[in-house]
Design brief:
Blueprint lengths: L1 H6 L5 H9 L4 H12 L6 H9 L3 H12 L4 H12 L4 H12 L4 H4 L2 H4 L5
Amino acid sequence: MSALAQKLPPELLPEALTAVRAIQDEDFRANALSALAQKLPEVLPEALAAARAIQDKDCAKALNALAEKLPPELLAEGLVTARAIQHEYYRANALSALAEKLPVSFARSPCCCQGDST
């Protein structure tokens, strides 16, 4: 899907987005949204929400695809999503991808490094 999204002319992007939103499988939809986000940054929040709705391995895969595209205002949400992954390997994988995008000031923030208090 990534290769196809890169080749789509701008006039076909709305139609492609409609088709992607109709995908029933959460994993495929999350990956397709991630691919379209390169050309349609406005779908990043939707792609992140789709990643949140899928299981560990596929969620980590979607977060890895999204990590380089996420703007600073969505990084915290991406981290929360990654921290919710149950499987340690996939959680670490997703967190590593997101960590590369973090500004130094964010990494020093207590909310970033502490566990949940609930």
